[in-house]
Design goal:
Length: 534
């Protein structure tokens, strides 16, 4: 059957679809599992099964959307336990570094959870009020100096927190003796926790999109990537799965090179999409992606797993029908289709040729769209698969500019810190998306924007804190070098978490991975080890 719908879709002379060529050394995706055989000009109707998933937000029982603030939504992803871990690992790293260098840092005093929240808040603020150099926030020049930042924290304190800031235990560093070490180990605890919370709190709609993002990197890195079409020319590549309806980030995968990764005959991009969509199989989701991912093998395997897909294609790639590759001249609105089982390949002429492969549209289903041509509005035929691609391939495309508009932290040479700021930024964006979709809190502003959300979050993270109210107590060299060794009882990594003996005696629940092997008990590094043995 021939289906025709009339759709008002007025645009300029250019096509909706941006022709993105993302050539990459990992080109095996388009060269394996595909065959030019079996394509036909005879069409068989395609039946698309109904979506059987349950979309929605899964808030904790005590979460009140009538009163929840930006900090409450943000804390769904970065909960207090993570901030406690940041504090423990930062203080631990500071002590280790001073001990390693054999001298105390007179400018350092252990950070508290309240101050850590303030530090994160300042880095969010710096993404809103951006300056080329962080020292300008403390400048005496009225054009640059920020009185609010100055009143919260000194420049020296900010520098020290940045120097020692850690989100993981350095004892897990195996880079020196393990050829298959995890290149992301310094950011791994945060990565895994936040990714899990993204998936746990939200069930996506039917329509999803997969794309790439780039985390800006200034330093040298073995797995640094270059993607000219992206805003950031070089950095760490991230594969992202978003809900195409609202741009909520469901999951992401940070590419960290091929070290320790099992070689796949289908290619890294194939494996990335399959991994991102693994938990969504069997629900009849529809996934959209650009030509970087599109290939017959991936689309048919997704279909077998109960996931429909649609993606832009490169006509000159292996697997796209040769008969369509040879078409060079068509009038605007004309298109050609070939079918292989449930898979269709389409070449459509707009202002330029657009190639598409799809398993989610009938090969003869089309739309009538309206285009502006000079001063006139004309009707143009458009295949249904291209229409739905234009409509839904915007989850990551919308998410990227939102994330890039307000960065968190400042790009540096340490890749794990850049990844950490990226993850925190994603958590803020997801929190804002959930806030806009679910909150019934009464706001003073009628149109509560993304900027309003971030500004309120910053104020709540800082919460009136000021490091200027506290006095730093310098540590002597003897304390730094021997604090964790008391009468032969050394504080060591026990290999697993248990409740701290000192906190247990105080009837306070605090777990730690550190303890004393001689006494066979767990004790926090932050004073408890010394207090127990003194």
């Amino acid at each position: 059957h021939h289906f025709t719908y009339s759709v008002l879709q007025v645009s300029d002379d250019e096509s909706d679809i941006t022709d993105i060529s993302t050539e990459d050394p990992d080109s095996e995706l388009n060269d394996t599992g595909s065959s030019d055989q079996g394509w036909s000009n005879s069409f068989t109707p395609i039946q698309i099964n109904d979506f059987c998933g349950e979309a929605g937000v899964l808030f904790p029982r005590d979460f009140d959307i009538s009163e929840a603030t930006p900090l409450d939504y943000f804390s769904l992803f970065l909960h207090s336990n993570l901030f406690s871990d940041f504090v423990e690992h930062t203080n631990s790293y500071a002590r280790w570094k001073m001990g390693h260098e054999g001298a105390a840092d007179a400018r350092w005093v252990d950070v508290s959870e309240v101050e850590m929240r303030c530090y994160i808040g300042l880095n969010v603020l710096m993404g809103i009020n951006q300056l080329p150099n962080y020292k300008l926030y403390w400048s005496r020049d009225n054009l640059f100096g920020n009185d609010g930042v100055k009143s919260i924290m000194t420049c020296n304190r900010y520098e020290k927190l940045t120097e020692y800031f850690h989100v993981s235990d350095r004892l897990y560093d195996t880079s020196g003796h393990d050829s298959n070490f995890d290149a992301l180990y310094k950011a791994r605890p945060l990565l895994d926790t936040v990714r899990a919370s993204f998936k746990k709190l939200y069930r996506p709609s039917r329509y999803l999109s997969v794309d790439e993002a780039m985390i800006a990197m200034n330093g040298k890195l073995t797995f640094k990537q270059h993607m000219p079409p992206k805003l950031n020319k070089g950095g760490v590549k991230v594969w992202m799965l978003s809900d195409a309806e609202n741009a909520y980030l469901l999951d992401f995968e940070v590419f960290h090179g091929r070290r320790g990764v099992k070689t796949s005959k289908n290619g890294l991009r194939y494996e990335a999409v399959r991994k991102l969509t693994k938990e969504l199989e069997g629900q009849n989701h529809c996934v959209f992606f650009d030509s970087f991912f599109t290939c017959e093998k991936l689309m048919m395997d997704l279909l077998d797993a109960g996931i429909y897909s649609c993606g832009m294609a490169q006509p000159n790639h292996k697997g796209f029908p040769k008969d369509l590759q040879q078409l060079t001249k068509m009038k605007r609105g004309e298109y050609r289709v070939q079918q292989k089982g449930h898979l269709t390949a389409i070449l459509w002429q707009d202002t330029k040729q657009v190639a598409m492969m799809s398993t989610l549209s009938d090969p003869m289903e089309e739309m009538l769209i309206q285009r502006r041509q000079g001063q006139e509005v004309i009707e143009v035929r458009q295949p249904h698969s291209i229409y739905v691609f234009n409509k839904y391939m915007n989850g990551v495309d919308r998410y990227g500019p939102l994330r890039a508009h307000y960065q968190v932290g400042r790009p540096g040479k340490e890749h794990w810190k850049n990844i950490t700021w990226f993850v925190i930024n994603c958590a803020i964006l997801n929190a804002f998306i959930l806030y806009k979709e679910t909150s019934i809190r009464v706001n003073k502003k009628k149109n509560y924007s993304h900027l309003d959300f971030r500004c309120e979050l910053v104020r709540q993270l800082i919460g009136g804190y000021s490091s200027r109210k506290r006095r730093s107590v310098p540590m002597d060299d003897n304390f730094v070098l021997h604090r964790n060794v008391v009468m032969g009882h050394e504080s060591v990594h026990m290999g697993y978490k248990r409740r701290c003996k000192v906190h247990l005696q105080k009837k306070v629940r605090k777990e730690t991975v550190y303890g004393c092997k001689i006494c066979n008990i767990h004790l926090c590094k932050d004073g408890c080890h010394f207090q127990y043995h003194k």
